[in-house]
Amino acid sequence: YQRLRLLLGDQLNEQHSWFATVNEDTVYALFECHAEATYCEHHIQKITGFFLAMRAFADRLRELGHQVIYRTLDETRAAKLERITDCVDHLAKDLGVTAFEYLLPDEYRLDVELKEYAEKVGGVACDTEHFMSARDDLAQLFEGKQTYLMERFYREMRKRNNVLMDANGEPATGQWNYDQENRGTLPKDISFPAASVFDRDASHIAELIDRHDIQTMGRMKDNRFTYPVTRTECLEALDDFCTNRLQFFGTYQDAMTVHDPLLYHANLSFAMNTKLLTPREVIDAAVAAYQADPEAITFNQVEGFVRQIIGWREYMRGVYWAQMPEFEHVNSLEHDLSLPRWYWTGETKMNCLSHAVNQSLDLAYAHHIQRLMITGNFALILGAHPDDVDAWYLGVYIDAIQWVEITNTRGMSQRADGGLIATKPYCSSANYINKMSDYCKSCHYDHKQRTGDRACPFNSLYWDFLDRHRERFEGNFRMKMMYKAWERKGSEEQTAILERAAWVKANREAL
Ligand code: FAD
Ligand code: SF4
Predict the structure, then answer these.
(1) Which one of 83, 104, 126 terminates a domain?
(2) How many domains is the chain partitioned into structurally?
């Protein structure tokens, strides 16, 4: 071989121009390496998912006629190769190749590591051809701005990519935003369609992880793994979403229930983050489903979905590249409490948290509003250190890759970025949770009480959060009403609430 091309575990895009022709001189390399499996404590299903998808991708490339070298964790460890670049360097020397190429990583850490290595050996970086915006599009759009308004970025993306636009370059229905229609609460008799599962035995990966003493979190029941790991499976999952769940996606995107972990969400983040599916084909499929049956799938459903992908997803990537590496250390609210251990065990009497955490540990999945308004909200109003919160989110979800995890966690959810992403913190009392879910009905705590042994911890923590950050948020026009409500409580009630909050914080491990 003359040329070695590296593929990372989240670069499994068989439609990339690299694969348009078969070249006998070129070898593609994929490595399971220890540094990647241990840079945080990953969910066991996350490591399993990446290794299975990488192995299947190597087989697929061979099927297409390409030359592939795949090194398992057993092999890279036996050769004492810890990091990606150690693996690349070893193989390049072994094969005597003269050219090295890699695809631009989405992780800052790997970007630096590979750039340094490429400079040393004269390697070349190529685009992943996955995203619909360039790394620095967002930075250019918001140059000199204190806040990056997602809505502005999203409209720009709709225009630029001609998605749901009319012939005059205006939004197809004359309206950009359907958020008001997308906050529905679940009717009593609604059913949840079963989503396709791709059940396979993953004992061999569980044993591999065990053999190398890799610390993991979460659970994988009976070593069965159910996420799609090949492109064919991912396309089937996309079709299943468009056929069975897209019709209610927008309306109930903020709803939560004890009866179903997925509701009408897509569960396509792993498929997209590994690049087995492109964002363009995902939104094209959703728009086509809407166009084929606009009576069943109303516009607000498809617009809500498109917004998540060409809006939030591309936007977060832009924020990441505009703000790294400093973003990894921001803590503008100066929060410093440890996150309770029950985030890792699920053992809490708070029903909403018990559901959101146990579901995350069982499935490596929680939908957006569980992440933002249950686990994230609690950590925020508690005052947990963003490092702890990041460690949990980066580990627990199958889709957790730093570019999209840290921006959502430290930025959107924990507001450690000083308000770059959100104009107002995503904090709430039990009132919101009770409105949007059925969690409170069967909870040990009383969602109406603010003080007393059975008072819902969210209530006192919520007011405590507002009170301790009064200077910062009082002037925020979107929060004026909240501060007025706090004033109206009078000093006696305020003191009782703050005392209860202090107790909750001190006893957070036992809630
Ligand atoms: P759906 O609700 O069906 O949405 C469809 C797609 O839109 C998702 O697959 C995803 O690709 C995209 N999307 C939706 N919201 C966002 C968002 N806020 N940012 C980026 N993309 C979005 N997403 C990750 O992919 N990886 C993460 O590590 C991650 N960490 C998060 C941490 C916190 C604290 C929060 C609040 C959100 C996080 N998200 C993350 C965003 C979002 O919650 C997940 O993308 C989503 O829950 C994945 O499930 P789904 O495919 O069913 O999503
Ligand atoms: Fe969660 Fe409080 Fe409701 Fe219990 S009462 S489910 S802790 S919001």
Answers:
(1) 126
(2) 3
Q: Give, for ligand 2, the residue of 447, 453, 461, 462 to mutate: max count of ligand atoms closer than 8 Å to Cβ.
A: 447
Q: Report DSSP letters for 478-496, one per residue.
A: TTHHHHHHHHHTHHHHHHH
* ω into 325 cis (within 30 of 0): yes
**Is the shortest distance between the CB of 447 and ligand 2 below 6 Å?**
yes
Q: Note whether residue 218 is domain-resident.
A: no
The answer, yes or no, to whether any atom of ligand 1 lies below 6 A from the CB of 46, is no
Question: Which residues are CB-contacts of 118 (< 8 A; sequence separation ≥ 6)?
Answer: 100, 102, 124, 125
Choose which residue among 377, 408, 414, 421 to substitute to test ligand 1 binding: the one with the highest number of ligand atoms within 8 A of its C-beta: 408
Q: Which ligand is nearest to the CA of 437?
A: 2
Please tell me the distance from the alpha carbon of residue 165 to that of residue 284, in angstroms, as a whole number. 13
Does 256 contact ligand 2 (Cβ within 6 A)? no
This complex has an ipTM of: 0.99
- Rounded to 5°, the CA angle 227-46-408 comes to 100
Range of the domain at 492: 342-510
313 lines ligand 1 (CB under 6 A): yes
Q: Are residues 156 and 282 in the same domain?
A: yes
In the DSSP assignment, the letter for residue 192 is -
Q: The pTM is what?
A: 0.97
Q: Which atom of ligand 2 is nearest to the CA of 351?
A: 6
Q: Split the chain (511 residues) into runs of 10 and give each run's mean pLDDT.
A: 96 98 96 96 98 98 98 97 96 96 97 98 97 96 93 96 94 90 89 94 98 97 98 98 96 95 97 98 98 95 96 98 97 98 98 98 98 98 98 98 98 96 95 97 97 97 98 94 95 97 98 97
Phi/psi at 406 (5° precision): -70, -35
> Is residue 400 in contact with ligand 1, taking CB distance under 6 Å?
yes
Which CATH number characterizes residue 10's domain? 3.40.50.620
Q: By alpha-carbon position, which residue is closest to atom 3 of ligand 2? A: 440
In a domain, residue 214? The reply is: no
